[in-house]
Specification:
By secondary structure, the chain is an alpha+beta fold. It has 12 helices and 9 strands. The structure holds adenosine-5'-[phenylalaninyl-phosphate].
């Protein structure tokens, strides 16, 4: 018998055998017999080498067709065997269809997302809409348009990851201020701009190289520092609790004038002093100030007619204070033992 005849014989035998199979065990044996490492079909492939050159192609093609035919037949038959087994099991009463199914393990929102949504909710009640600006930002918007030219020492505080010579991963959400102003002029503005920020930063229990901020911007004709302080005081009470008091310190940011930093009395010790507030009695909630005239101008608003306020809040740090999380790195470690607590 030549190799071609042998091949056809293997095919017929395999198909004949297959139809007689009625169990998973025999299916496995069948597969091994024909397709295993030393299986009959596998061996056919090896025998190609002993054929004369001109017959090899025809033989190879036929072998491929047969392999395809056999594996299709196998799949179809395996399906039938499985169904028959299930039916037999059902008929014998071995399967209790009244048993409850396996519970699906449902996930839940990450603590950062929960905190962001609380913040959105609070500002939504004060009439702020959410505006999203990109993570990959132009150097011009992240720095220059915010009154931080290339020689400005404030750039050292905000070193970051560069994408190319003009683009970087934003160091704060403030560049979104200019984007929203340019889009909305000459309308008044009341937005929050949430998002991820990136800094070339030493990672510690309080500082990550990536973290969230929520920026706030209001631009109108009669906006004053009182509006800013009132807004942040209201935020603090709604986020940390109605009895919180707020304090304002003077500060410096190139894009606000005057600039302030806002603290709340320590939520743990109520101002008496404890390790969380480093015995000062106060916790910082963010930087803020009246929008600098140069920034208003860069956004297209005439500073003689318009005024505005802006603030920048962290997200992880306020969540740490509120929920007593001691290490910011836990937010990015994906450890379910941490995540499931919230
Ligand atoms: C700023 O980024 C200013 N753009 C904020 C601002 C906006 C001021 C508008 C005035 C007007 P600062 O670098 O302080 O400021 O960051 C603001 C907040 O971001 C901090 O209070 C802190 O909560 C959070 N933050 C800053 N760096 C990190 C870090 N490495 N890890 C975690 N949170 C951080």
């Amino acid at each position: 018998m030549d190799l071609f005849e042998q091949l056809e014989q293997v095919r017929t035998e395999a198909l004949d055998n297959l139809v007689t199979i009625d169990s998973q065990v025999d299916l496995v044996t069948w597969e091994k017999r024909y397709f295993g490492r030393k299986g009959l079909v596998t061996q056919q492939l090896r025998s190609i080498g002993s054929l004369p050159q001109e017959e090899r192609k025809t033989f190879g093609q036929r072998l491929n067709d047969i392999k395809q035919e056999l594996s299709t037949a196998y799949e179809a038959h395996a399906q039938q065997v499985k169904l028959a087994e299930i039916e037999a099991e059902l008929a014998s009463g071995a399967v209790d269809v009244t048993l409850p199914g396996r519970a699906v393990a449902a996930g839940h929102l990450h603590l950062t997302t929960q905190t962001l949504r609380q913040i959105y909710g609070i500002f939504a009640k004060m009439g702020f809409e959410v505006y999203e600006a990109p993570d990959v930002e132009l150097e011009k918007l992240n720095f220059d348009m915010l009154n931080i030219p290339a020689y400005h020492p404030a750039r050292d505080m905000w070193d970051t990851f560069w994408v190319d010579e003009q683009r970087l991963l934003r160091t704060h959400t403030s560049p979104g201020q200019v984007r929203v102003m340019r889009e909305r002029y000459p309308e008044p503005i009341r937005v929050i701009l949430p998002g991820k920020c990136y800094r070339y930063e030493q990672i510690t229990a309080r500082s990550e190289h990536q973290f969230y901020q929520v920026e706030g911007l209001a631009v109108g004709r009669n906006i004053t520092m009182t509006d800013l302080i009132g807004t942040l005081t209201q935020f603090t009470r709604m986020f940390y609790g109605a009895s919180r008091t707020t304090r304002v310190r003077s500060s410096y940011f190139p894009f606000t004038e005057p600039s302030i930093e806002v603290d709340t009395d320590c939520i743990l010790c109520g101002g008496k002093g404890c390790p969380v507030c480093k015995y000062t009695g106060w916790l910082e909630i963010g930087g803020a100030g009246m929008t600098h005239p140069v920034v208003l101008q860069n956004g297209g608003y005439d500073p003689d007619e318009w005024s505005g306020f802006a603030f920048g809040l962290g997200v992880e740090r306020p969540a740490m204070m509120k929920y007593g999380v001691e290490d910011i790195r836990l937010f990015y470690r994906n450890d379910l033992r941490f995540l499931r607590q919230f």
